[in-house]
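Action item from last meeting closed. Structure (523 res):
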């Protein structure tokens, strides 16, 4: 038998391509056992939800870096970390909001009547203009600022966007567009010359007209300081001050909530602006911040390519390893004692997925032609900040970055289903994923493009890099304390990791570079 076995193996190998033998050798290193071991640690209570920044996120980073080292990945310039500097913003002590109307001054209480956003600070005073939803959307032929001058004035706008509950709305049906985001409304007001913004909860869709603004721990006492907003320090811009006001302000300005409701209804029905100046009225607003520099890390591991001509080109394989931390249950109206958002699926699942792909390449004797850089991003939950930092401060030139593959939430729902996101941006990446999936056997869903801006690959596409994003879909535990390891489908993570490996293998060894579709550069 000892003499017969090598002969059988040799005959078998002759029937297989050498490339498939190499691929199979890599795939064999991806295992459910190590997936479970790694995710059990990353999503454990001891890491307290891996908030950015936090000591627990740093522990997670050290763990990932150690695994990269064990799997044969190399550091960059002697380190597995790309340090990211943030500015943490806290609410200062002096904040006020006063309306002067017909010679009478009306003050408002912070927390109950108004809540500041985390955009801009300072003291402003000016006349007020109602500007509908505060949207300028040329592609939809809609502009709340048409025919109204807001230069030097403070703008009042509604939250969200027109027809938000109408599936036939030009604003992407019931799915919110970027025009609904407070940051967009504030930026758009600034570009039209406004000096401040007051956002109102829209009365057509909300019975309780309480202000949201930002959830500051100084206002909402049960929230921990870990919930404070952060921004990339080099991108810190002073926006104009912005607050969200509630029912008391609405009644003082419009006389009755129903008046504003009727205006909003008319806008929604006709998609025509109803903007106007509020006569004989001014407001004075002061917002103060306290700022602190804080730090976190992107975790990087490198596999150098073996081809003399192609090794200077790089494939990025990424996943964010942060989540949203922990909160006081009473602050959120929760009865249970569990207050840790473990983020097992979001996104410990994607993190262990790229770790398995890293192991498959790192422990292989055959190195790819192109180089591969594995990145576990920090700060995704704070606004894709870690990946934004990388594309603005790349370790390897963006023009040498051939493609990016992103794994985010890959451990839930049917083991046979997977959402392919980014396919509309690159026909080459779509075709490649579909070809390699013929071996793996997922049933792809293509209805996730609306979620394209919500994960890290979007920052790479914005720089012109072809991308693809594998996602298993949302579920009832999304951003809840119940997103725990015992609900994870380990076999599905293994299956996604194997698909990712095959796609990355093709990208790293083909002499052809994928392209973005013409005119498809992400915003």
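Sequence:
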């Amino acid at each position: 038998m000892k003499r017969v076995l090598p002969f059988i193996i040799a005959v078998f190998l002759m029937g297989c391509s050498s490339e498939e033998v190499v691929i199979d050798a890599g795939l064999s290193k991806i295992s459910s056992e190590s997936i479970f071991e790694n995710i059990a640690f990353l999503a454990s209570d001891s890491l307290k939800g891996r908030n950015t920044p936090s000591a627990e996120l740093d522990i997670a980073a050290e763990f990932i870096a150690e695994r990269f080292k064990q799997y044969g990945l190399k550091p960059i310039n002697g380190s597995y970390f790309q340090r990211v500097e943030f500015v943490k913003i806290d609410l200062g002590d002096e904040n006020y909001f006063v309306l002067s109307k017909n010679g009478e001054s009306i003050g408002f209480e912070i927390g109950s009547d108004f809540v500041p956003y985390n955009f801009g600070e300072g003291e402003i005073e000016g006349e007020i203009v109602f500007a509908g939803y505060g949207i300028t959307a040329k592609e939809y032929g809609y502009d709340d600022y048409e025919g109204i001058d807001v230069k030097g004035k403070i703008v009042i706008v509604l939250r969200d966007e027109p027809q938000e509950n109408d599936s036939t709305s030009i604003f992407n049906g019931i799915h919110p567009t970027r025009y609904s985001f407070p940051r967009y409304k504030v930026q758009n007001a600034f570009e039209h010359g406004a000096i401040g913004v007051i956002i109102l909860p829209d009365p057509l869709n909300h019975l309780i007209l309480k202000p949201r603004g930002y959830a500051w721990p100084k206002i909402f006492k049960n929230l921990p300081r870990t919930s404070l907003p952060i921004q990339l320090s080099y991108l810190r811009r002073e926006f104009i001050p912005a607050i969200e006001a509630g029912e008391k302000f609405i009644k003082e300005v419009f006389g009755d909530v129903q008046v504003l409701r009727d205006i909003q209804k008319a806008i929604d029905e006709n998609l025509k602006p109803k903007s106007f100046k509020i006569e004989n009225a001014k407001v004075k607003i002061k917002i103060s911040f306290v700022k602190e520099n804080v730090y976190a890390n992107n975790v990087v591991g490198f596999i150098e390519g073996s081809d003399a001509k192609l090794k200077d080109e790089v494939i990025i394989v990424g996943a964010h390893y942060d989540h949203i931390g922990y909160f006081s249950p009473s602050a959120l109206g929760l009865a249970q004692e569990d207050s840790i958002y473990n983020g097992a699926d979001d996104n410990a699942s994607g993190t262990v997925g790229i770790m398995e792909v890293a192991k498959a390449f790192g422990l292989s004797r055959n190195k790819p032609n192109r180089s591969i850089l594995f990145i576990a991003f920090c700060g995704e939950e704070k606004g894709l900040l870690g990946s934004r930092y990388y594309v603005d401060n790349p370790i390897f030139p963006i023009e040498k970055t051939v493609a990016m593959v992103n794994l985010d939430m890959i451990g839930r729902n049917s083991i046979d289903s997977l959402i392919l996101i980014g396919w509309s941006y690159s026909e080459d990446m779509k075709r490649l994923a579909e070809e390699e999936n013929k071996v793996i056997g997922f049933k792809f869903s293509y209805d996730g493009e609306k979620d394209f801006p919500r994960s890290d690959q979007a920052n790479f596409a914005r720089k012109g890099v072809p991308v693809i994003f594998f996602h298993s879909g949302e579920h009832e535990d999304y951003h809840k304390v119940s997103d725990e390891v015992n609900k994870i489908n380990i076999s599905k993570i293994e299956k996604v990791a194997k698909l990712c490996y095959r796609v990355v293998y093709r990208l790293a060894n083909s002499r052809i570079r994928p392209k973005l579709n013409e005119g498809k550069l992400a915003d």
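Note appended to the action item: The chain has twelve helices and 19 strands.
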